[in-house]
User: What shape does this take?
Amino acid sequence: MRTPVIAGNWKLFKTIGEAIGLVKDLKPLVAGTKGVEIIVAPVFTALGRVADELAGSNILLAAQDCYWEEEGAFTGEVAPGMLKDAGCSHVIIGHSERRQYFGETDVTVNKKVKAAINAGLTAIVCVGETLAEREADKTFAIIETQLWGGLEGLAPEAFSKVVVAYEPVWAIGTGKTASDTQAQEVHAFIRSLIARCFSQESAAGLRILYGGSVKPDNIKELMAQPDIDGALVGGASLNSASFAAITNFAG
Assistant: This one.
């Protein structure tokens, strides 16, 4: 059985005080949630303080990005080991916004994934196609390129520290959501690709999340699909009540 993952990507929102307030409100709402891995991903500046607030709770902490070197003359970057030191257990890598606005490539995703795993973090690796690519029937080709490029060179045992998030770019922040059937089709393709390129065991254990305008009113249908193992939530994770409702999808 694959334990579902519900992760909240806060993006460029929430001051330190606002971030602490959000998790204070969230903790009692999800304290009774069983069988779900709950993760929040604040901005870098709030990580340490949020980690302190989450101590002893059932909520884990992720960063939104990392660099692939542990130290050096890399102004503005944050190493995976530093994230672990700040209290993180996970890091999001290769989000479409990093690819679109900050020059992230499959090569840099691969470097970051390996560095994160080496530091003891779990990498949440994002893949997804644009609307133009979907309309040109390139979805599977794009996913295969991104996935193979981002995970190239990983040993099968490394997949215990990998989560994949499928985020169709056309559904992020637009209010549009891939239908549960559309999402399942891509998730099943991702699992088959991992089985073919790595191992059946890696594929069977891999958690694959859906991201793209996930809300309390569509999470149950998505989670009913056999290859959807959770969600990477954007806007709805900025409110404790809506994020808790998504986290408690089984209730």
Summary: The CA atoms of residues 67 and 79 lie 5 Å apart.
